[in-house]
Amino acid sequence: MAVEYAVEVEGVVKSFGRLRALDGVSLRIRTGEVYGLLGPNGSGKTTLIRALVGLVKPESGTVTVLGRRMPDVGILSRIGYMTQAAALYPDLSVEQNVRFFAAISGTEDNVGEALDFVELGSRRRSVVSELSGGMRTRASLACALVNRPRLLLLDEPTVGVDPQLRRQLWDRFRAMADQGTTILVSSHVMDEAERCERLGLILFGRLLAEGSAQELIQRAGVQRLEDAFLKLSEVRS
Amino acid sequence: MNMRRVVAIWFRILAQFRRDRRTLALLFVIPLVILSLLYFLLRGTGGKPNVDVVNEDQGPVGSVIAQALQRGDKLNLHTTSVSSAEDDVNRGRVDAYVHFPTDFSTRALSGHVIQPEVRLEGSQPGASSTVLGALAQAMQSALSAAPQGSAVSVNVKVSYLHGGPSFDTLDYFGAAFIGLVVFFLVFVVTSVSFLRERSQGTLERLMASPLRRGEIVVGYMLGFATVAFLQSVEVILFGLYVLKIHNSGSVALIFLIALLMAMSAVNLGIFLSMFARTEFQAVQFIPLVIVPQVLLSGIVFPIETEPRWLQVISNVLPLTYAVSGLRDVMIKGADLAWASVQLDLGVVLGFTVLLVAAAGATLRRRVA
């Protein structure tokens, strides 16, 4: 049974010392939606994503993912999490990395498919430390989706990735969303924000605005999403 | 050479040191700690061997030599009977006893031979040679006081409880070093590789996976224990059969102790790597964790010769028990029936369990 919302965040607050990383964030992501989390560096994007997988424990507020109140170790097998830097074992081959993460969630049968999906099938035996940055990003993505996740969390997946590869990756994300996977992407790259169905603007740990790219542009009364982003940020800060 | 550029590097390095308080503390505090430890160990109560003197001699010669031993002041002497002296040696309470039998003076005066009996505990070659040296010296000075012309030859009858005359320093240290080498290397390798797990971001990924903390800790332990097992096999076989380090006990029991040591080293590595941010800082735990253990666990300096307050510290170090267990097995031929071996194994096992729990707890804390 599919829940209506893959992600429900209610008034989440989290501080690190005197810094309020999340200051009462609430948002909902529908099942099968591609949601873009936009915000400058240090705005709280990563903290929010870490709260979704239970790595950050909010001081107040609730996080519900795929119908389960977090933290819930059981549901993590249905979540794919791609961290900011390509988190891989550099001494192992691409396939060994993917196979390891598959073994954790018991989906070893999906290794070949995951490798083909990121077009690393032919480089499966290459040792990660010898790969280019772009290939590492793809290998990292393969590790995140080898467990056939129903929710895919991508923390700035295209940082340091050339435009060609970025387009390829987005085609992949799109394909997954069409098959019913909910995707949350954090980014500060505007051209990829336009590919999301809905966007959330986050600044100083608060969600400033939400809506499709078109809606945000109209609300700000500007021409481009980048200007909308800057203008909406100004109004509230 | 452009001096300004050199100075730039010079000052940058100093600025980095000022930021890294831990490294500074290490550089300036650890040497004092280590030197102080050495001071207390080497200037401690002094490592005079304990020796029982059993004088059953019906003539005067026995007590002349006993007095000479006393004057020589190389041994802590204690006069007692044969049965309790034998008991003291068997229980390791004294390093040796010297026995002057009833016909000692008769045989000496009738011009035969001075033949004291020495029973050595034998597990510490250093103590054994001190005892034999002190006795030889005492007899020398007793003989010089004897009337001229009496042709007396000296023949000390030495017997060993453990080891034998060929038992040397390597036999004594070898047992302990097997434990130390395994513990040290496994600790360093685990702490650095667990730290790498954090710095390369894969720990974050593991934490966001359905893995439970216990599974991570136990999985790590098994992985490194396998390597540690192979390493123990290699070290023990090399020590026993190539270097021919003395062993009177069961090889399986040596493996068991070495393996338990390795497991506690794995978990100590995981536990401490949580307190380091970089591999550099993890390496700094070596002087902090390993050096005091090497000095205080009885590997080099017998714990009995330490000042009392240092003994308290020694008695809470896991390596102390591993070293004592390995020595009991290899030198004294102890088996699992020995109470001391049971204690040693129990404590090492207890430390391992404790460190597994500590490693699991720190993993949890990192995430909260």
Overall description:
The complex is a heterodimer of chains A (237) and B (368). Chain A has 237 residues and is an alpha/beta fold. Helix content of chain A is 34%, strand content 27%. Chain A is built from eight helices and ten strands. In chain A, helix 2 (94-105) packs across helix 3, helix 3 packs across helix 4 (133-145) and helix 7 crosses helix 8. The longest helix of chain A is centred in the C-terminal third of the chain and has 16 residues, at 163-178. Chain A is globular. The model of chain A has no long low-confidence stretch (mean pLDDT 87). Chain B has 368 residues and is of the alpha/beta class. Chain B folds into two domains: 50-160, abc type-2 transporter like domain (abc type-2 transporter like fold, 3-Layer(aba) Sandwich), CATH 3.40.1710; 168-367, no CATH class. Chain B has 15 helices and seven strands. Chain B has helices at residues 3-19, 21-42, 61-72, 82-90, 104-109, 125-145, 169-199, 202-207, 213-242, 251-273, 279-283, 285-296, 308-314, 318-332, 339-367; strands at residues 50-55, 76-79, 96-100, 113-114, 117-120, 153-154, 157-160. In chain B, strand 1 (50-55), helix 3 and strand 2 (76-79) form a beta-alpha-beta unit. In chain B, helix 3 (61-72) crosses helix 6 and helix 10 (251-273) packs antiparallel against helix 14 (318-332). The longest helix of chain B has 31 residues, at 169-199. Chain B is elongated and about 90 Å long. Chain B starts with a helix and ends with a helix. Classes of the chains: A alpha/beta (237), B alpha/beta (368). The A-B interface holds A 50, 53-55, 57, 73-74, 76-77, 79, 81, 83-90, 101, 104-105, 143 and B 200-202, 204-212, 367-368.
Question: Which geometry of chain B do the CA atoms define?
Answer: elongated
Q: Characterize the biggest β-sheet of chain A.
A: 6 strands, mixed
Tell me the structural class of chain B: alpha/beta
Quaternary state reads heterodimer
* Content of β-strand of chain A: 25-35%
| pLDDT averaged over residues of chain B | 82
